[in-house]
Amino acid sequence: MFDNAEIAHEVDKATYKKKEPALRQSLLDAQYELLRQKRFPVLILIGGVEGAGKGETVNLLAEWMDPRHLITHAFTVPSDEELERPYMWRFWRQLPPKGKVGIFFGAWHTQPIVDRAMGQSSRSGLDARISEVKRFEKMLTDEGVLLVKLWFHLTRKQQKKRLEALESDKATRWRVGPNEWGLFKRYDKFSKVSEHFVRSTSTGWAPWYVVNGADPRYRALTVGTTLLAAMRDRLDEKKPSTPGGNPPPLLASVDGRNVLRALKLDRHVPEKEYEKKLEKLQGRLNLLSRHEDFKKLSVVAVFEGNDAAGKGGAVRRVFQAIDARFIGSVPVAAPTEEERAQPYLWRFWRHLPRKGRFLIFDRSWYGRVLVERVEGFAEEPAWMRAYQEINDFESDMVASGVVLAKFWLAISKDEQFKRFKEREKTPYKKFKITEEDWRNRKKWDDYERAVCDMVDRTSTDYAPWTLVEANSKYFARLKVLDTLCDAVERGLKRCR
Amino acid sequence: MFDNAEIAHEVDKATYKKKEPALRQSLLDAQYELLRQKRFPVLILIGGVEGAGKGETVNLLAEWMDPRHLITHAFTVPSDEELERPYMWRFWRQLPPKGKVGIFFGAWHTQPIVDRAMGQSSRSGLDARISEVKRFEKMLTDEGVLLVKLWFHLTRKQQKKRLEALESDKATRWRVGPNEWGLFKRYDKFSKVSEHFVRSTSTGWAPWYVVNGADPRYRALTVGTTLLAAMRDRLDEKKPSTPGGNPPPLLASVDGRNVLRALKLDRHVPEKEYEKKLEKLQGRLNLLSRHEDFKKLSVVAVFEGNDAAGKGGAVRRVFQAIDARFIGSVPVAAPTEEERAQPYLWRFWRHLPRKGRFLIFDRSWYGRVLVERVEGFAEEPAWMRAYQEINDFESDMVASGVVLAKFWLAISKDEQFKRFKEREKTPYKKFKITEEDWRNRKKWDDYERAVCDMVDRTSTDYAPWTLVEANSKYFARLKVLDTLCDAVERGLKRCR
Known about the structure:
The structure is a homodimer. With about 500 residues, the first copy, chain A, is an alpha/beta fold. Chain A starts with 12 loop residues before the first helix and ends with a helix. Helix content of chain A is about 50%, strand content about 10%. The longest helix of chain A has 25 residues, at about 15-35. The first copy, chain A, is elongated. Chain A is built from 20 helices and 10 strands. The first copy, chain A, has helices at about 15-35, 55-65, 80-85, 90, 110-115, 125-140, 155-170, 180-185, 185-200, 215-235, 270-290, 310-320, 335-340, 345-350, 370-375, 380-400, 415-425, 435-440, 445-460, 475-495, and strands at about 40-50, 70-75, 100-105, 145-155, 210, 300-305, 325-330, 360, 400-410, 465-470. In chain A, strands 2-3-1-4-5 form a 5-stranded parallel sheet, sandwiched between helices. Chain A has a 5-stranded parallel sheet with strand order 7-8-6-9-10, sandwiched between helices. Chain A folds into 2 domains: about 5-235, Rossmann fold (3-Layer(aba) Sandwich), CATH 3.40.50.300; about 270-495, P-loop containing nucleotide triphosphate hydrolases (Rossmann fold, 3-Layer(aba) Sandwich).
């Protein structure tokens, strides 16, 4: 992987002086067209060895382009807010919006390489993280992000020479300390791990560009020309291509049987029994939330369901059980301008809770495979790949200690009709029923189909769906609380 | 202050059942009109003693209103990201946007009261924080936020009874522990401090509503009716009033002399000297940034100046001196939708850096008193009060350990003309010059006036302006670096 980058390159001053102004001008033009089109963001990852010109490249790009539309972020030690969330959270929160150029100085590649080179993770541990990175970058590029991954390489000899040169110059002496020489001592180990990582994550959708960093002029022209080509390619696209082409069809349904129709929706609980059990379950959930190990995990509960299935009522019973300081909810509405300028899942990632907290999503990321699919707001390739992206997202969450519970509240078509009518009659419930609800109802079968596919494809062992028979609100609420208690209990057991 | 709230109140069940549905309906109507008007946010502060129904009130409001447009946030222990920023940062980041209702469970009032009641701050310390709170709330209300501050009170006897009742009920026993009884033991102390705080921060623009919390039905109706009245009042306003009326005029200028004209803009440094000094200053700044105490502070540098005064070049020289991992910049552009839905300063607060970092603002919050004033984008009352709000903002920053440096880069009208022409000739500099720059130039005198007023009103001992003679780019860059070094040095001295 690094063979080519070991070859010596040198660009003389005259050549550089001749080529630089035009390159610079073209980059600037591209940057402005990017800003005008506002169709996608550019994200430049900077990786590689010490002394190979990573910092210089960042400064150079800031000098060549308009720094006002350039967002540079260097990832050093994560904060406690970051440590309490999935690994990828800190990168999500810094993603550049459409139209902007982002530079990540060290990114998701840094930690896996360092951990492995320092002997803090196994080879299979590294490979698991490589898979995670590949899936993440696939999602980013599918969402339209132009990823330009630059790896700056130096041979062992070149690095030694470079560190010595930095050290002997008064102005740059500070850049070389025991830390840098310590890393240099592990040159071979780092090189081996990096080579494996860079090769494995060099995919068709997001290749690494390995650049020899020894000659500043060669480095600058190579980076500039490569970046320009990547940007122009995307900017000049006539019709944005569909990543991966049209997806294959979903499993056909031939006998009308499915998980929803198999539910006994009329399961019932008498009021007296409900009240007794509700109190008991709320007490149980509350005790769990105050368990001493609870501060090591967080709970994310997703509520989806037919319109008028009683999501709000169920959510309120959960709220009642938890100290208001430790529970919050995210009502999922139309995305804001800042959210629309980001990959789909960004607006959910940004809300992920810290440890020791409950967070309720009233509707969720499943909107893409439900309403957006049925109403045609998302195109088929987008919602088809969403299943996998959602599974990855949820897997990241669970791996970081999130207890994830997902509820689909199901009612029958008749029960829905009854509830719609009731809402129209009750003044303070009227706001809950709109023309849209009646329109959605007409697409009952399409929604049913979408729900079955969703359950098929996103009910995983780490984040299973719970289908809740909800013709009786009492029954539904108890089942939700009971399931949630069980999930939290299992989460607490895992902490031990 | 609490006298009225000590009087016993009781609402019987029948009355409550009669009044509740209409109140609930009206609140919902108001909430929807708020959402439709999107003119202002509602922020409800919840304060008061344990057991007085704070949590219950939050849950009740979530039940009465549409929870999808309600944002509840409970402030407990601050995170490290919050601790590394000014005290108010954690509240800023949770402010509800226009059209939404936010509920703060414990807010900026909590810490000052607890600190004083527990003997961790002096009386004058408390009073300083009271002033800070008052100024902050004034700014919020001036910015259109409807603040509804609810204080839930119980007499000593009532609190004891309430805690005992909670303790004896299995379902609520968890809510009363040593912590709650410990607070109760300090009832008198807390009551005294709270009374002082609540009275002092009960202002014409943001009064506290003190509610006796003993009777849940009385409490619910009182809160609901008060909140409704406050919302209706604002929603039904025909023409939004100008807070404080039209401001008095600024100091007249009679002889044309001012701080800008007093500058010797042509101060010059020969190239050789420049290069030598530049290297020395960058080295000095770099050393400072790697000082062991530097992690205890952060640096915010604001760059304002005439168009083409060389801000970008000066900023780059600062960047070159600092390890790219510890410096960032915020280019101030048009506010986003999420930013427009917040008070003016929100979009600057959100970027404030953590400790150990440099942050450059390329243009800043001074936009309000410069371009927005001159171009009429902000009305006079808005930019007039901005001087004070900015001073408060900067005082918060400096108090939390931010080294704040503010630069105005000044060039002469002739020099600007020369630079504009030059930019038009150089292809890769062309993007820097637009029609707007030529238009702004025509308002040279207005801008000059605005700059002088700005310096007058916002050059404080804790955050002075540095006027930089910038006809010579070399001179300007050296002065910027030198001033910045001095400021960081002073900051480091304060840390010791």
